[in-house]
């Protein structure tokens, strides 16, 4: 009889991919794996943690403590903690939370499996079992990061950029396609940097061309495209190939030159504006997503007003906003964290309020227009779908009444009949 193992995956989609490979190895050995169901009795809970910023670390700690409470009431036998938080603070965690049975870092998958008497045959990146709906999958193309932004702990946690060889990626992609995946969502810390370490040049465009040869993929989506030195041939390919979604995630973080310089972003305000204008000139209907950081040291009210004006004038289709978190070991940690938590929170709310108005206006422009959507799931009286302009979990959704006979994972042509701030109401044509 195999063990009942519950995997709780926190943080980004890159962690999701690791958890899916981990579950595949465990299932192949005969163990029973569930995901995030903390109410179910388990022999083992594995928590794949995030340690990127303060809020993520707090969520990881709270999840570990909850698992410990389950262990004390004999609802779980063993607790294993892995991933980014464990990589950064393993010794501290061992001392502070002794009820955890074992800690493993971000690349210690072989050791974790051996701890559970599972011999890892070949590469860790095989035997993947999706936790997402079967019609889409996150597709990690590299690990680590060479950008060395002053506020970011990722290079401390994951190390320098390591590309996964193209032939290995193509084989994995074919396996996903043969198992029913129709939308491939490409992720990495910096997707456009792919290939530098292996081939001495950026190879994201050649990789995409190889993936396009897999005809079962109807949508290929690109996330985390670092704006500095973004290859414009990527935008040209996106324009030419209808199966590459007109969607790109540009994590800009700020617009003020002094802040950008202190962040070591290696790009200026003018270069950002020119990049956005050039992308939109080539693909007028592209959906631009970005993330911003507020409350970085030195962000005066005047500087923040500049950021607000940038959000107003640029009119991003999608926008996320984070509070600056001083991370030990990063260059920015040496700066005075001179903005209160209350003011940081207020600034987040101001940015998101501006974006909410923009999102509503952009959604209202879609009323009466037709779009292709993919059906993700059913909730109560609605089917939940997405257009090519939206990633799962973080972007807008299209709600379709369940009186329409549709199927999860299939594409349909719909007409937008109503718009909300972050959702659209559609009818199947």
CATH-derived architecture of the largest domain? Alpha-Beta Horseshoe
Low-pLDDT stretches = none
Radius of gyration: 22 Å
Amino- and carboxy-terminal Cα gap? 50 Å
Strand line-up of the largest beta sheet: 6-9-10-11-12-13
Helix content: 25-40%
**CATH topology annotation of the largest domain:** pyruvate-formate lyase- activating enzyme
Query: What is the H level of CATH, i.e. the homologous superfamily of the largest domain?
Result: tm_1862 like domain
Structural class: alpha/beta
Mean pLDDT: 95
Number of strands: 18
Instruction: Report the CATH C-level class of the largest domain.
Output: Alpha Beta
Beta-strand content: 15-25%
Biggest beta-sheet profile: 6 strands, parallel
SSE map:
Elements: E1 4-9, H1 13-28, E2 32-35, E3 42-49, H2 54-72, E4 76-83, H3 84-96, E5 102-103, H4 109-115, E6 136-140, E7 142-143, H5 154-158, E8 162-163, H6 166-178, E9 183-187, H7 196-199, H8 204-212, E10 219-222, H9 232-240, E11 244-249, H10 257-262, H11 269-282, E12 287-294, H12 301-314, E13 318-323, H13 341-364, E14 370-379, E15 382-386, E16 397-401, E17 411-419, E18 423-428
Parallel strand pairs: 1-2, 1-3, 3-4, 4-5, 6-9, 9-10, 10-11, 11-12, 12-13, 16-18
Antiparallel strand pairs: 7-8, 14-15, 14-17, 15-16, 17-18
Keywords:
429 residues; alpha/beta; Rossmann fold; pyruvate-formate lyase- activating enzyme; OB fold (Dihydrolipoamide Acetyltransferase, E2P); 3 domains; five-stranded parallel sheet
């Amino acid at each position: 009889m195999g063990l009942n193992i519950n995997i709780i995956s926190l943080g980004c989609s890159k962690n999701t991919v690791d958890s899916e490979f981990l579950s595949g190895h465990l299932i192949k050995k005969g163990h029973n794996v569930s995901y995030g169901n903390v109410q179910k009795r388990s022999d083992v809970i594995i928590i794949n943690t995030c340690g990127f910023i303060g809020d993520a670390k707090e969520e990881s700690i709270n999840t570990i403590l909850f698992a410990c409470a389950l262990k004390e009431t004999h609802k779980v036998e063993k607790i294993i903690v892995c991933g980014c938080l464990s990589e950064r603070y393993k010794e501290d965690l061992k001392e502070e939370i002794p009820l955890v049975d074992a800690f493993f870092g971000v690349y210690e998958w072989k050791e974790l499996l051996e701890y559970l008497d599972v011999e890892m045959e070949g590469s860790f990146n095989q035997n993947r079992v999706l936790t997402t709906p079967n019609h889409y999958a996150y597709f990690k193309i590299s690990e680590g990061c060479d950008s060395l932004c002053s506020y970011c702990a990722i290079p401390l946690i994951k190390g320098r950029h390591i590309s996964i060889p193209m032939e290995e990626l193509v084989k994995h992609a074919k396996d996903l396609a043969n198992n029913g995946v129709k939308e491939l969502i490409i992720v990495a810390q910096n997707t456009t940097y792919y290939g530098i370490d292996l081939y001495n040049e950026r190879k994201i465009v050649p990789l995409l061309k190889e993936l396009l040869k897999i005809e079962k993929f109807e949508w290929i989506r690109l996330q985390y495209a670092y704006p500095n030195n973004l290859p414009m041939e990527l935008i040209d390919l996106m324009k030419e190939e209808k199966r590459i979604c007109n969607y790109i995630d540009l994590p800009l973080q700020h617009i003020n030159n002094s802040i950008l310089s202190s962040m070591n972003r290696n790009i200026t305000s003018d270069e950002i504006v020119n990049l956005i204008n050039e992308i939109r000139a080539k693909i007028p209907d592209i959906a631009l997503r970005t993330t911003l950081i507020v409350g970085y040291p030195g962000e005066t009210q005047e500087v923040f007003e500049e950021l607000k004006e940038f959000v107003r004038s640029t009119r991003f289709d999608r926008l996320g906003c984070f509070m600056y978190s001083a991370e030990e070991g990063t260059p920015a940690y040496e700066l005075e964290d001179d903005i209160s938590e209350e003011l940081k929170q207020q600034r987040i709310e101001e940015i998101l309020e501006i974006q909410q108005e923009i999102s509503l206006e952009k959604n209202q422009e879609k009323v009466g227009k037709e779009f292709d959507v993919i059906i993700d799931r059913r909730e109560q009286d609605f089917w939940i779908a997405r257009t090519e302009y939206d990633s799962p979990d973080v972007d807008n959704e299209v709600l379709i009444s369940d009186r329409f006979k549709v199927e999860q994972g299939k594409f349909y042509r719909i007409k937008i009949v109503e718009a909300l701030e972050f959702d659209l109401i559609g009818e199947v044509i």
